[in-house]
Amino acid sequence: MYATVMHGPGDVRYEQVDDPKILKPTDAIIQLSATCICGSDLWPYRGASPIEQPMHMGHEYCGVVVEVGSEVRTVRPGQFVVGSFCLSDNTCPHCRSGFQSSCRQREFMSGAQAPYARVPLADGTLVATEEMPDDAMIPHMLAVSDVLGTGWYGAWAADVREGSTVVVVGDGAVGLLAVLAARQMGAERIIAMSRHETRSQLAREFGATDIVTERGEDGIARILDMTDGIGAESVVEAVGTKEAMQQAMGVCRPGGAIGYVGVPHGVTLDGQDLFFRQQRMLGGPAPVRRFLPDLMDRVLQGRIQPGRVFDLTLPLAQVADGYKAMDERRAIKTLLTVA
Amino acid sequence: MYATVMHGPGDVRYEQVDDPKILKPTDAIIQLSATCICGSDLWPYRGASPIEQPMHMGHEYCGVVVEVGSEVRTVRPGQFVVGSFCLSDNTCPHCRSGFQSSCRQREFMSGAQAPYARVPLADGTLVATEEMPDDAMIPHMLAVSDVLGTGWYGAWAADVREGSTVVVVGDGAVGLLAVLAARQMGAERIIAMSRHETRSQLAREFGATDIVTERGEDGIARILDMTDGIGAESVVEAVGTKEAMQQAMGVCRPGGAIGYVGVPHGVTLDGQDLFFRQQRMLGGPAPVRRFLPDLMDRVLQGRIQPGRVFDLTLPLAQVADGYKAMDERRAIKTLLTVA
After folding, report:
1. What's the number of domains chain B is made of?
2. Which of A69, A124, A178, B120 is the most buried (most CB within 10 A)?
3. Are residue A130 and residue A203 in the same domain, yes or no?
4. Any idea where the Enoyl reductase (ER) domain is (chains A, B) (predicted)?
């Protein structure tokens, strides 16, 4: 088959690769209904993460099971499934405590920007629907796999509750979906930091009550001003840069919580500064598997439409253009259709 | 009067100073029933914190009110009071959310290693008892002011609950009282990291179920081994060094919580490492004021005896010897009697 391989920064190719096959009895092979490009794929694309060998890209996925290994029990060929970008057995102590993204057998999904993909640990990773969803549901189901699940975890880690004041730093797909998550969790005030019109518009539609366009010290001052100098009790950091983390810390009140879901790059925290800020911190790759059944239900019931973050759709063969559009911030997130 | 002044590292003097007086209408003057030396007093004593001018030492205190400013309403001369080492108005939004140690008017207490001391923000800081406590209660009441309150906050920040497994890093007075706090909160297993016989003995008496004498990588391996490779869901870091923080992070399970109450010195955290460990972090100066009424009640009811951490008692005039004994780890904590 043809699939997506990154050979170096800025060098994404749609090229012939081996067909995926069952390697372990716990594997499944799925045919992708659609796939997409993640903001985190831009780290290596931009040279911010090393590329030691050609990388088979893609970790967000939904589709139809075509084959399962001999030990797979919970999914079967013909079923529509969504899985987490973190592969987990869902039985180890960390999984059982709801942190499947720290599963003892954890692997990260790869190779999903392709027509077919191998999903290791299928029983612990995939959730099947009862019926085959309509085509119109596919973008929303696909978004659950990572960006929605990650935004949701960010809001959960930031301890968002009924009536909370929440600040979301980052207007990428994860930040926008953290806004949606905060709204679903009952937040009263949701302040999105965004200076891009299409993104801030979507943030408003997802539930943001306020948009702050200022950044850095000005952005912090603006939000403190809006919150009577108190700051927010919940802050989601959905970027991963030093500047974003500083902004998050600058707007969180003492005793408040920061959920940080952007993979930190070049972020160093001073212990004494962190101590005197007295903010709760919880980050990490999102345990999407914990939230999957609930989030898939919300999508299927039409309560949420997370797939609205896809503002560019391309055929898989044009995946390189999709990376370029996201790198240049012409697109929030690129959906790739599989013929 | 004579009081304690630190002039430089290792240079503590009991010398003549001005008597404290009411400087603001919200102040109170107390006559100390007893006072003591804190582990954090050793940072400047050891040259690990700068001493820019002679420092009037002492921030742990209990005693009898002798004078109040014109605006003080909740305490009056003749009452026995305990206060937090963090001075707070107890009315600002941070105080009202239970984080009095981040009060907008926060000051840190000083000058309490003396017969008399000025307590600013008396209404928001001091809690009076109904009756004058017996002399035997004084060490326990004094301990509430900082070390017990700080150990208690550490256990609370580490989310200790009924049935928890808890690791306490640090066998100073705060660590030992974090053990006591964890026991009071219903922890099932409390592992104290200690290699000093008198300290580990006291840890056991306060409720530790296990003592681990190994440190560093060996200590981490030992605790992982004791917890089926899972780690603890609650970890209290009560030292403040890089090594102690690494130990705390090494034994906390993903999704678990680290309450860090040792003031960090030379601790730097790598954002990406923190992210992938997926541990909750909450530190800071303890909001002792939040816990004061409850902890004073527990002491007066005889349910806890936190003053057992005082294993050296000296007259205030010999305060310099008290510092020396703690610096050389001959004493856990020095109580200073006031004539």
Report:
1. 2
2. A178
3. no
4. 8-336
